[in-house]
Amino acid sequence: MASCKKDNIPSNGNEIIVPPSDTSTTQILYSGSLIGGEAGDQARGDVTVERVGSRKYLVFRNFNSNSGPDVHVYFSKTIGSHASPPTEYKDLGFLKYTSGTFNYELLTDPDISNYKYVLIWCAQYRIQFGYTELK
Fold this sequence. Notes:
By secondary structure, the protein is mainly beta. It is built from no helices and nine strands.
């Protein structure tokens, strides 16, 4: 089985959510901790969906993962594995960093009732680096 080992993702993310000028507080809507991983590719860290003012973000904290080609962040209906990759998911884009704190602004409300898993997924080799169920 191939593994996602190519180093092409920057390390050491240090993004913070900039609070809106109206000094609204941050509200955590959902949270989870990454577990799992296949073929030695492990992603770990805390994941939250947060509201800051009128904006929502998917936030990764204390994150650490192997690097690889074509690694994405998905909201998914299923966990996915090499034998059974996710088929119903929303792709938030490439993984920004292999460690640290970073976020993705969510332009629409996340449909957590249907897409309750966050996956770190190597699309090229169909390998799950990690997942969490948001609660």
